[in-house]
């Protein structure tokens, strides 16, 4: 693994709504600390940072516009010069200018972090890989929630997270830890 000098960090859905208790039990309680580690490194090395925020089309969503859940968590607030992409579906490429912006900037490598692993992270990483980007997902800088599978079997957030990462690794993305990514950038 070699981290390019212009690799973009894509930080997905770090808005207040993702902390709402109604979303249920989650895994990876230190995910935000790992995200912040990467964000500090990216900013310190002047690599591009792209914040992705969800503006839901569903009134019962924690990301419905006009209520506090849609607001960014202050610790993840974009700085001047950092790009903000607003999406209405899980995939950050769908209905946005993300691909065109990355291509016009000559960026070919992406590191994706955020929430939820099996939703916006997986969806965005699949598209990035399919579009030919060298895509990495930081497994310890993502998290998700308990979810029943298609057959109604309860699955823990850790199981959902692990299966989602397995879906991505080797086909759409390279999955690794924050430590591995930071070492690749030294």
From TrEMBL:
MF (Gene Ontology): hydrolase activity
Stored Pfam families: Isochorismatase
CDD domains cross-referenced by the UniProt entry: nicotinamidase_related
Domain Isochorismatase-like: 7-152
Domain of life, per lineage: Bacteria
Presence of keyword Cytoplasm: no
Family annotation (SUPFAM superfamilies): Isochorismatase-like hydrolases
Record's keyword terms, sorted: Hydrolase
UniProt protein name: Isochorismatase
Protein's organism: Pseudomonas frederiksbergensis
């Amino acid at each position: 693994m070699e981290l390019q000098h212009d690799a973009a960090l894509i930080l997905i859905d770090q808005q207040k709504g993702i902390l709402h208790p109604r979303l249920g039990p989650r895994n990876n309680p230190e995910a935000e600390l790992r995200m912040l580690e990467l964000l500090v490194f990216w900013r310190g090395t002047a690599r591009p940072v792209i914040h992705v925020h969800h503006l839901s089309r569903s009134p019962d969503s924690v990301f419905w516009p006009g209520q506090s859940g849609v607001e960014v968590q202050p610790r993840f607030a974009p700085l001047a010069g950092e790009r903000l992409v607003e999406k209405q579906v899980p995939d950050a490429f769908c209905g946005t200018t993300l691909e065109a912006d990355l291509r016009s900037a000559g960026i070919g490598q992406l590191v994706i972090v955020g929430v939820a692993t099996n939703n916006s992270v997986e969806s965005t990483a699949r598209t990035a890989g399919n579009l030919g980007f060298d895509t990495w997902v930081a497994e310890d800088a993502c998290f998700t929630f308990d979810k029943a599978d298609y057959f109604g079997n309860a699955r823990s957030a850790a199981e959902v997270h692990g299966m989602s990462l397995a879906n991505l690794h080797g086909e759409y993305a390279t999955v690794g830890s924050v430590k591995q990514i930071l070492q690749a950038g030294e």
